[in-house]
Amino acid sequence: MTCVLYLLLTIWLHIRPLSGGLVKLEGELENSAVISHSQGLMGRLETLLLQGNSSDVSLRVETADGDEVKLFQAHSLVLSLQSPTLSQMLQNRNSSTLVLQESADCVAVFEKFIRYLYCGELSLRLDQATAMHKLATKYGVSDLQQGLTEYMSQNLASASASGHVVGWYEYAAAAGDMGLKATCLQFLSWNLSSVLQSAQWPSVSAELLMALLRRSDLVLQSELELFEGLEAWLIQNDPDSLTVENALRAVRYAMIPPRELFRLQRNSPILGRYQESVRDLLYLSFQFHSASPLQLAKFFDVNCSLFVPRNYLTASWGTPWVINNPARDDRSISFQTQLGPSGHDEGKRVTWNTLFSPRWLPLSLRPMYNEQGTMHQSQAVQPALGAARPRIIITPTTSSAEFAGISFQKTVVVSTRQQGQLVVRHVYNFHQSTEEAGDFLANVDLQQRTSDYLVDGSLHLHVIIKPLYQTLIAIKK
């Protein structure tokens, strides 16, 4: 029986299903294929697990306190082939029973885990992903670990009452999965307005809170919204004084209008208690709003993030833009933004023109014609249309001489619908000296109405203009 099982597993692990039920063998020619019954083989292996036929090891999976126990009749050969960790444990065992101590959440999904070892597939819910990832990591099942990381990365926007993204971030940080941690942090940063209003916000750790507060790419309505969310978190979690002070000092008060700053000083219970910790920042912010930024720089050190805007969605900073049937033709829109974040510039406006083209060509690739209307021979062989792709160009109508030391970072936020919710899919940044985002929607096919970048056939954009006092601050990414 052991020899037969080994043969079945060897075949199963070295064949790859192709369409039409054919399987190409490794190292064979393109047209070399055999009939595949791999699904039937998987079914027989699953039956082997369920019935325990020819089992030579018992797995006792239990929690540390022994309150939850599960027993499985298994086969050493299968476990050893799939998990190097289990293989080592099986070699060192001194009885027919192998005791595995796991957390309660891992015990709950262990049946799915061992089924994967036999069948190479599993189904799971969002709330089971972390426990399954723990098991895959602990027992060295690298293919499953990678597959779970991809599953989690692709389901960040899925609806979940438990607030799974925050939990996944905390898990990834503890497990040292830097890729998953970065992916979760980026998603939370780009969708912070929704996160602040969700049930998962109070469960954010102090470490994650500070990681978010330090970022300039947060997408949210305003800095005031961020402060109010921070205040709610501080009141609910009641952390130590050092954590409170560090968090409050990460707020960019200079991005909050003076009338709102006055209101916060009067009404905020957190500021009332910790105002001394941020008094210098509040004072500098009021000065920033009352004087010319160039004049302020003569007396204060303003080379800090306090004066760097985040990606604010309010009308002073940009405009939403929904483009219906974006593959059809070029579109344009005009809007105004405040010249700078300082109250000194509140009454000054910059008008911006934005052009979207689904198939725009750069000048270097556009066909040139001679006086007879014939394309230049040097360009006749160029596949001009092949280089066309979606483009967005943002230019000011105001003379640059009127900007007085201000530069602008242009940001285009692309939102899509995932699992029934509108979420930020991507954020594109480019500077004043560049008219367009070079990688905007690269490799995105807008002809397909089912594209992941479209919502009911429409492209949802939000164009943001971030004014930066270039002579005063060093911009850090």
Q: What about the largest sheet?
A: 4 strands, antiparallel
Count every beta strand, where a strand is a DSSP E run of 2 or more residues.
15
Radius of gyration: 29 Å
What's the end-to-end separation, in Å?
61 Å
The structure class reads alpha+beta
Q: Which spans have pLDDT < 50 for at least 5 consecutive residues? A: 11-26, 377-386
The number of distinct structural domains comes to: 3
Indicate the CATH architecture of the largest domain.
2-Layer Sandwich
Look at the structure and give the mean pLDDT.
Answer: 82
Strand numbers in spatial order across the main sheet = 9-15-13-14
Beta-strand portion reads: 15-25%
* Total of DSSP H or I helical runs spanning 4+ residues: 17
Q: Which SSEs are present, and which pair or pack?
A:
Elements: H1 2-14, E1 15-17, E2 22-25, E3 33-35, H2 38-51, E4 57-62, E5 69-74, H3 76-82, H4 84-92, E6 97-101, H5 104-119, H6 129-138, H7 142-154, H8 164-175, H9 178-190, H10 192-196, H11 206-213, E7 219-220, H12 223-237, H13 241-249, H14 258-267, H15 269-290, H16 293-296, E8 311-312, E9 318-324, E10 331-338, E11 349-360, H17 377-380, E12 389-396, E13 406-418, E14 421-431, E15 458-469
Parallel strand pairs: 4-6, 7-8
Antiparallel strand pairs: 1-2, 2-3, 4-5, 9-15, 10-11, 11-12, 13-14, 13-15
